[in-house]
Structure formats: C-alpha cells, structure tokens
Design brief:
The protein is mostly helical. Helices cover 84% and strands 0% of the residues.
Length: 200
C-alpha cells in the first residue's frame, strides 16, 4: 500500500524526534551531572558515532528499496543524510570548542600533527557540499547527473568516518570493525548490483 502524504509527514516527524533523542539524553545527563568523568571526550565520541550511524542508515535506503520494494524510503533519505551532517557538525564543534578552545591555529596544528584528525576533518568537509545541495532546488539547478555524481561522495565520506573511528581507539576496535563490516556489506551489495546490471 502506497503511503499517503499524511503518512509520509507522520513518519518524517517520527524520524525527526527519534533522531534527536540521543542529543536530548546527553543534555539531560549533562544538566544532572551524570555524563561521566570526561564529558568532553564522551560528547565528541558520541556525536562521531551518531554521524556514522546516520551515514550508514542513509546508505541503507537504496538496498532496502530494491530488495524489498520499499520505494517510499526514498522520502526519508534526505532527512537521514542531514542528521548525519547535523551530528557531524556537533562532533566538530564540540572538538573545536572544548578541546581546542575555538583556536583555529590550534585546530590546524592538530590536523597536521594527528592523522586521524586529518581524516575526520576531510570527511566532514566532503559532507558539506552534500548537505548544501540536498534540497530539490539545488538538484534542479546543478542537474540530476551532476547531483548524482556529487552525492557519490557519501561512499568516500563513510569510509573516511570508519577509518577515523578506527584510528582513534587504541585497543578495543570492536565497534569500528562492526561499522567497517556493515559498510562492506553495503558496498558489496552495490558492487553486485552494478555487476548484475552490466550483465543484463
């Protein structure tokens, strides 16, 4: 059954409020002094993980549409991608504000000094044009072909995000590996799908 306009709006609202729940929980814990002994590190790490989660959810839309015929999911892909950008912004702002004290020179020096910061920064910068061109108006302005090519950057961004996460942790690499496996499955599906299309 094809969802109606009211159904789509309802689910968009549901996604919106659910996507904000992690942030609201963090703010609640922070207000009540329950965010741990190192709130800055916890906040930076949490926002980074949420960015990866929403990137992977965005990449899940196409396989789910094609495998299960859930074409309506395309209506929510933009929102998921924008939440990836939103949490990416919080990740960067928390790092710059609390770890670097809003020092541009200190941030640049850190990027040069620590490779995992550089990987994360490049990934975030690549995410900006995707967020800026997410609106239908921008799609019409730059053309569908250029828009599609530009938005393929999400693959590189997701890889960079996983590598960034892996490089941060020192010993417990379980969660970075989980993200890497999930991303590999999503890429594997796309490669297989492209191969089948070429054969056809």
């Amino acid at each position: 059954m094809k969802p109606t306009a009211s159904d789509i709006q309802f689910y968009k609202t549901l996604i919106f409020f659910n996507a904000l729940i992690p942030l609201l929980i963090m703010l609640w814990d922070f207000a009540h002094g329950q965010i741990g002994v190192n709130p800055v590190e916890l906040s930076i790490r949490t926002f980074g993980v949420l960015t990866l989660i929403f990137l992977l959810l965005t990449l899940c839309v196409t396989p789910m549409r094609k495998l299960f015929g859930w074409g309506f999911l395309i209506k929510y892909r933009r929102m998921l991608g924008l939440f990836a950008f939103f949490y990416g912004c919080l990740h960067l702002l928390t790092y710059m504000g609390f770890d670097r004290s809003w020092s541009i020179s200190g941030t640049v020096a850190d990027v040069i000094k620590r490779p995992f910061i550089a990987v994360g920064m490049v990934s975030f910068l690549l995410l900006i044009p995707l967020a800026v061109t997410s609106a239908d108006k921008m799609l019409r302005r730059i053309g569908a072909k250029r828009w599609l090519k530009l938005h393929k950057l999400i693959y590189l961004i997701a890889i960079g995000g996983v590598v960034h996460f892996y490089m941060i942790v020192k010993s417990d690499v379980f969660w970075p590996v989980v993200f890497a496996v999930a991303l590999s499955v999503l890429f594997g599906y796309r490669i297989y799908s492209a191969y089948q299309k070429a054969r056809g």
